[in-house]
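Annotated sample (chain length 213).
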Amino acid sequence: MLNRKRFRLVSIITAAVVIVGGAASLIAVSHPHVPAVTSSTPVTSSSTPSTVVASSSPTSGSSSSVASAHHLISLAKRERTLSASEAKKYEAIPVLTLAGKQTAINAQRQPVVFVSEIDPSILQQLAGQSFAKEPVLIVTWPVGKQTIMQNAQFVEKEAKQLHLRSEVVALRGKYTAWITGIPDTYVGHHGHLVEVPGILPANEIHSWATLFH
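Output written by the structure step:
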């Protein structure tokens, strides 16, 4: 009799386990795990003067460069003329000098290059050239927990080591409202504002002097 009771008890427990396990399987099938989807697509911007482009996009939510197997685009294909409405806001880009003074830069009158510690390679391309109008280096897109002023100080140090005469300032406000990538250049040309994203191919570096006329 005792053995029969034990057998019934074991049978009941086994049946309960089977039912619970089946229910869990049913729930897993009915509600499968859906992995998070990210849409971080880099925009056109280069980081090293080689044949491989490492794009840095401020809209990707990532502070790292993403390599892509594309050759650097020539200047002729890279230039983009902004519409009058787009260009209007670049007549007063809000910046901070390294002394902490608030001011504004007019890209129609003075070429500007948006740079970041994330990708300072543009500084190497500007080094050793003579410009009719020295571009202003506007530092944006801070790295990690650093402040924008700390990043600006880093860029200024790099610029001095390369003997650049360009003024270094820090952007005030959100960078996504001003740039499409890092680096990003804006220069006035015959009454229009032209954007040149990224760096240039090695054989076209001299074209910066033509742009900053």
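Annotation: The chain is about 30% helix and 20% strand.
Annotation: Helices lie at 2-30, 75-78, 84-88, 121-126, 148-161, 207-211.
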